[in-house]
Amino acid sequence: MLAVVPPPVTVRVPAKVNLHLAVGDVRPDGYHDLVTIFQALSLVDEVTVAVADEPGVEVYGEGADQVPTGASNLAWRAVQLLATHVGKDADDPKVRVVIRKAIPVAGGMAGGSADAAAALVGLSSLWRLDISRDELAELAGKLGADVPFALYGSTALGTGRGERIVPVLGRHQFHWVLAFDRRGLSTPDVFDELDRLRAEGDPPRVGAVEAVLEGLSSGDPRQLALLLGNDLQAAAVSLRPNLRRTLRAGVDAGALAGIVSGSGPTTAFLCEDGDTAVRVAAELAGAGVCRTVRVAHGPVPGARVIATEEPKPTPPEVHA
Ligand SMILES: C[C@@](CO)(OP(=O)(O)O)[C@H](O)COP(=O)(O)OP(=O)(O)OC[C@H]1O[C@@H](n2ccc(N)nc2=O)[C@H](O)[C@@H]1O
Ligand SMILES: Nc1ncnc2c1ncn2[C@@H]1O[C@H](COP(=O)(O)OP(=O)(O)O)[C@@H](O)[C@H]1O
């Protein structure tokens, strides 16, 4: 009999931007209650999972040298969590994970969370698990507040720590320019800085989420641009004052509005249409206010399998 090794599975998974991010008070568990609107963008990582005798993680691409390849890699933590959930040996799951990154590391675009979500989806296919996306989302929430959204993608309202997801319907595409900063920012540091700013004064707070939902359903980027907001922006700018210049440069280059993405330091600029986004990106790249510029659109779907090679039969084991 032929022993069939299941073919590797590759999953594509999007970055996110928060169109609206309202941060409540710090909770006893150290998290903050959030009301946020996530949008998944066409800036994607690709994660391949394969059966392997030598388990581990390899990382290539954008910021790969800043990503741990050991037990703290979020995709590896996802492998171990799912293995435990389905009764496999979490210490020896016989899986290799290859991550090809395009999402900036520690950029406020949930790249690590995306890789974790991709690993969950990839393994469900590799191990032929009968597991619903909602069950995966339960597990995802244990890995990080942003992980469930990366499973669903599109546009969604997030509450709780950000892990409770409700889809926001809408068929309009929006065009973005993303400016990557020279170094990443730690998410806990940015939340701590917001707590500090709030203890000292009254940093700006975003308005009601309902208006943003209306802006989204109008499909009019001009209307949506007026409503974008992020409570973490003041904290990110306080830790990285150069972001003020970047935000100004994007709008000067012709974007409708610019915001810090999540905890930053990536800045995201909403543009009138795709052609404008390309022009804004070129001008921003020339302004010397950031490391790299990307054009993206959203919403796009969440983590999904893009390639499964044909099974490769391995030679049969011969028993004497
Ligand atoms: C800020 C946001 C906005 O979407 O995104 P990023 O900027 O990181 O991409 C998220 O809330 C980040 O989610 P995620 O990166 O998954 O956070 P986690 O790993 O769960 O938490 C990291 C740390 O951030 C802080 N944290 C996170 C989420 C939350 N609702 N309140 C918090 O205070 C806590 O200090 C926590 O220990
Ligand atoms: N697969 C991964 N990709 C990126 N970062 C990872 C990954 N696994 C663990 N990390 C760690 O998580 C931290 C936050 O990364 P990331 O999710 O990219 O940023 P953010 O939380 O700002 O969206 C990084 O500093 C990195 O050390």
Automatic annotation (TrEMBL):
Pathway named in the protein's UniProt entry: Isoprenoid biosynthesis; isopentenyl diphosphate biosynthesis via DXP pathway; isopentenyl diphosphate from 1-deoxy-D-xylulose 5-phosphate: step 3/6
GO molecular function: 4-(cytidine 5'-diphospho)-2-C-methyl-D-erythritol kinase activity
Catalytic activity: 4-CDP-2-C-methyl-D-erythritol + ATP = 4-CDP-2-C-methyl-D-erythritol 2-phosphate + ADP + H(+)
Top-level EC class as recorded in UniProt: transferase
Residues of the GHMP kinase C-terminal domain: 213-286
UniProt xrefs under Pfam families: GHMP_kinases_C, GHMP_kinases_N
InterPro entries: GHMP_kinase_C_dom, GHMP_kinase_C_sf, GHMP_kinase_N_dom, IspE, Ribosomal_Su5_D2-typ_SF, Ribsml_uS5_D2-typ_fold_subgr
Active-site residues, Swiss-Prot/TrEMBL: 16, 146
Domain GHMP kinase N-terminal: 73-153
Highest taxon listed in the record's lineage: Bacteria
Binding site for ATP: 104-114
EC number: 2.7.1.148
Keyword flag Cell membrane: no
Keyword Transferase among record annotations: yes
Keywords tagged on the record: ATP-binding, Isoprene biosynthesis, Kinase, Nucleotide-binding, Transferase
UniProt record similarity statement: Belongs to the GHMP kinase family. IspE subfamily.
Function: Catalyzes the phosphorylation of the position 2 hydroxy group of 4-diphosphocytidyl-2C-methyl-D-erythritol.
Protein known as: 4-diphosphocytidyl-2-C-methyl-D-erythritol kinase
Originating organism: Lentzea sokolovensis
Gene name of the encoded protein: ispE
